[in-house]
Write a structure and sequence with these properties.
32% helix, four-stranded parallel sheet, TIM Barrel, alpha/beta, single chain
Length: 446
Amino acid sequence: MMRNRWWLGVVAALTVGGCDAASSGSAGQDVQAYTNFTLIDGTGAPAVENAGMLVEDGRIVRIGPVGELGIPDDVEPTDLAGKYVIPGLMDLHVHLGNVVDLNQDKANYTRESVEKDLRTYASYGVTTVLSMGTDQDLIFDIRNAQREGRPETTRVYTAGQGLVFKGGYGGLAGVNNQVATVEEAIAEVNAQADKGVDIVKFWMDDELGTMPKMPYEMSQAIIDTAHERDLRVAAHIFYLADAKELVEQGVDALAHAVRDRPVDQELVGAMKENDVWQVAETLSREASMFAYGEPAPFLDDPFFRRSVSETALAQLASPERQKSVSGGAHFHDYPQFLETAQANYKRLADGGVSFAFGTDSGPPGRFPGYFAHWELKLMVDAGFTPAEALHAATGRAAEFLQAEDLGTLETSHWADFVVLDADPLADILNSRTINAVYIAGRKVQQ
């Protein structure tokens, strides 16, 4: 069903929260109007020129042709002068707060470090993130405070502490409790549910054969227990065989693309039939695994450098570090992993599998905010149109989060949006021409 409600622009008086929008300015509410922009609303609908938007207390109360907006007399509109407006981007695979410069440690995780990351995401137009399994418990206070009011920085959803098999790959030392038995796994899922996680995350990976992998009876117990607690489950995967098994077990989302071999119709059909999401493709993660083996082309890009410390920039530019990266045991395999991930992501999407957008940014070398724009470019390189890439990072991402008032610019939704100087549908690199970012109707400091 078409979600774009242009006809609402002609309604004479729209009541939101008991307040008549046409008179809300005089009633002392926080009201803004924005006019003369091209709207890309996040629903997948075509862009609309000469649009206008009326926002009250952080929510959209009217959106439609600017001539039909009905701006109250006491509200001075902001003329966007032909710029482009998109919903705030939503990154469904990040890790918050644990990295300073290029050093990752649980001791770095403080309220200040988490909020710094959220401000960085906001400055890049990423207005919602799903933090995937390496949070400490203070994340719940931050999240809950946001949801009780009108946030001023990037919104956070969290998987708390994801589940890691004992001795296996995943998580962060000192944060994630490693589980050795089915009973321990069940207890840990219940512990995360009691804390109030938005989703359960676990790792199913042997780090290219170098570490033990979680047995399937444990993943089945995790999935079943989470479902008993009315929680969905996302799995970190690498191998096609694991993806097939977990889809059969009832997992709700794959948190990375399959990277060892091409996906087949069996997986495509099973994911579609069971409504399993490819919730994050993390193409920029794969690209970053080999990008730093030489001077990465974006190291001199002001759009990249503006959020990266001088210490980190110096480390990334170091010939010694580049030599260390390029000398890794699997360095020459990583470009193929990226190509396989891109092809698999496109095949799943073309096959009708539900998909959304995520980067795996946050760990060392995977920079908050910038990686979202790199991810968009890698999606387009994989064969998606700019419109499809943006839809994955807005409306589709909100659908996965079951966030009914986020992800699209529609009446009653939160006014989380990005103003761009150039058309991202003409060139996805124009997603980087950020003029302004708004969260709940408030302008983010750049």
